[in-house]
Structure formats: structure tokens, C-alpha cells
Write a structure and sequence with these properties.
InterPro entries: DUF6164. Pfam families: DUF6164. This is DUF2007 domain-containing protein. It comes from Pseudoluteimonas lycopersici. The chain has about 120 residues and is mainly alpha-helical. The longest helix has 29 residues. The protein has two domains: about 80 residues, Alpha-Beta Plaits (2-Layer Sandwich); about 35 residues. The chain has a three-stranded antiparallel sheet with strand order 1-3-2, with helices on one face.
Length: about 120
């Protein structure tokens, strides 16, 4: 029976491509389910054979450790040279988006506080 190896929700395309290439390189049989049109199902990469699941999980753990180290190093380098995204750069590049987000947060906090205010009075 097939087992889910990687849920594709919020997975970047390059990471999914790397996982597919890794499984192909190690000759592990897999298949992929696509995401649904309405976003209810995210899709996933499944290992076909039960005997290969342990090996696929071990390879996935190694890959994720390597990717994590690489991405952390890239982020540290970006922070050192000043090219990392910060709140200030987002505010400068997309002020309307930031303003709408702050407004939405204030509205949601108001909705959460509304029952307390109504029960108090």
C-alpha cells in the first residue's frame, strides 16, 4: 500500500523537484497526486512499495537536513549583506498591503474583544 512521503501544501517547486529527482536517482517507485482546483487537497508524493518506505524516509530526512542548513546559510548571508527581506523593506515596497494587513488585524482583534465588551456592559 502506498504511503505519503511529502504533502505538497506550501512546498516550493524546487523542493518538490529535488524530492522527485532524489527518488528517481535511488530507483524508488513513487507517484504524485495533483492539487485540487479549489485548494481542498494539496497533492502529495507517495511511495508505492511498503519495502521502500523506510529508505525513502531516511533519504528524505537527509535531504531536509541538507536543505535546512543550506537555506539557513543563504539567509544568514542575505542578512549580512543587507538583502534579506525585513518589515521595513516590505513597508517601503508594498505600503498598501501592509496598511490593509494592519487594518485587518485590528478588525479581527475588535471582533474577538466584542463579546467581552458586550457581556461587560
Amino acid at each position: 500500500m502506498a504511503k505519503l512521503l511529502l504533502n505538497l501544501r506550501n512546498v516550493p517547486d524546487d523542493e518538490a523537484d529535488d524530492v522527485r529527482a532524489m527518488l528517481d536517482a535511488h530507483r524508488i517507485a513513487f507517484y504524485e497526486t495533483p492539487a485540487s482546483a479549489w485548494g481542498i487537497i494539496a497533492g502529495g508524493i507517495f511511495v508505492k512499495e511498503n519495502a521502500e518506505i523506510a529508505e525513502a524516509k531516511r533519504l528524505m530526512a537527509d535531504y531536509q537536513a541538507q536543505r535546512s542548513a543550506r537555506v539557513r546559510a543563504e539567509y544568514a548571508a542575505a542578512r549580512r549583506d543587507g538583502s534579506a527581506e525585513t518589515f521595513r523593506t516590505v513597508l517601503r515596497e508594498q505600503p498598501l498591503r501592509v496598511a490593509l494587513t494592519v487594518l485587518a488585524i485590528i478588525c479581527l482583534l475588535g471582533l474577538v474583544a466584542l463579546p467581552v465588551l458586550l457581556l461587560r456592559g
